[in-house]
Amino acid sequence: MYGKAFAPEYQGALTTLSVNSSLTDVLAAGTEQLRAAEQAGKSAEAARSGLAVAEAHRRLGRVGEADRAWKASYRAARAAGDLGAMAWALWSGGTLARQRGALALARRLLGLAAELGERGGDIVVRGYSLAGLAETGRIQGDYEAVGRLHEQLLAEARRRGEARHTVWALEGIAQMHRNTGAYDTAFALFEEAAEVAARADDRRGHAWALRGLADIVSVRDGDVERALTLLSEAEAGCRAMNLSGALAYNHKMRANVLYRAGRYAEARELYEEALAEFRAMSEPRGEALARLGLAKSRAQLGRAPRETAAELADLYEVLGRIGLRHAQEMVARAQTEFGVRAEAVR
Questions:
Q1: Which domain of life is it from (predicted)?
Q2: What's the number of CA atoms in the CB half-sphere (13 Å) around residue 228?
């Protein structure tokens, strides 16, 4: 049985904030508490309040502010000798690094966070940090290496009745099944994630689960209208909480659905919108995936093959530098689909 979802990253004086609190509200409350703690010379409270500030900035796509905030939180936690707060700051920094495409740095920071969490006796930050490591491996396409870790973390979350972490693990496992073509299994897992999130009032997790369901409904069933309806419901949740990153991925998925339906002009417009959103928040993975969809849409609408070849060749190199092997495979399939292997631009 799961209880109501909670946000363990909102700590100290901010524990009254909900997992569904608007990020602008979180940022305002966190900034106010941070200033008060700094003025009072309370390093531990400054670290805890600074964590919420860092996370709000990150989820709003404000990369520079998020980077400064998590580092300041870590320094305050270290000054207070608070291992748990140090671990949470490193978790935030590692999550930001993954968002920015710095995957090696993400693994290092998340590994340190898990270690400090264990030393400090904070099982929640340890679990979140291991989850971050699992997600980093998953987006790289290293499913064999992280699949067992995802399953382990799901079992732990179920045992503790922690809804938010259960939803995250279900969605991660579902995505791996989706990417390997096991659509029915993926659908069932996304559906369970959506149900758990809804019962626990986890709007963020629910929005991501709906996005996953829309993807399966589109690619497996070819049901465009149902997929778009699911995405509209998810988008409403994203907007209510000001989830910039989730909203950008929602728009990209909407474009994917339209592309699969042969509605290439509409898809192109949405890929362009998502691309601008990803660039505004310095999210290279999302940017590259939106570029891929945009290149394919333009090719379908009559773009010169040489230009398509150049675009796809550049994308393949970009994704290689980030370390996203699964996404590289998607580019290679697009090159084959349009008959524009990389050699064509040389």
A1: Bacteria
A2: 14
Higher pLDDT, 161 or 252: 252
Return the pLDDT at 344: 42
Topology annotation, domain 141-239: 1.25.40
Domain ranges of the chain: 8-121, 141-239, 243-346
CB 134 within 8 A of CB 153: yes
**Per residue in 296-326, pLDDT tens?**
999 999 999 999 999 999 999 999 998 888 8
Please tell me the distance from the alpha carbon of residue 4 to that of residue 70, in angstroms, as a whole number. Answer: 27
- Residue 228 confidence (pLDDT): 98
Tell me which architecture the domain covering 243-346 has in CATH.
Alpha Horseshoe (1.25)
Measure the CA–CA gap between 219 and 180, rounded to whole angstroms.
13
For 288-291, the CB contacts below 8 A with 24+ separation are: 288/315, 288/318, 288/319, 288/322, 288/324, 288/327, 289/252, 289/327, 289/330, 290/248, 290/252, 290/255, 291/315
CATH fold match for the domains 8-121 and 243-346: yes
What is d(CA 342, CA 32) in angstroms, rounded to the nearest whole number?
53
Helix, strand, or coil (residue 62): coil
> Helix 43-59 crosses helix 63-80 at what angle (to 10 degrees)?
160
- Report the C-alpha gap between 40 and 302 in whole angstroms: 64
CA 309 to chain centre: 29
E runs forming strands in 194-271: none
191-240, pLDDT tens digit by residue? Answer: 999 999 999 999 999 999 999 999 999 999 999 999 999 999 999 999 98
Mean pLDDT of 12-39: 94
Fold for 8-121, please state it. 1.25.40
Q: Is the pTM of this model over 0.70?
A: yes
Largest CA distance in the chain: 65
Q: What are phi and psi of 298, to 5 degrees?
A: -65, -40
- By the 8 A CB rule, do 9 and 52 touch? yes
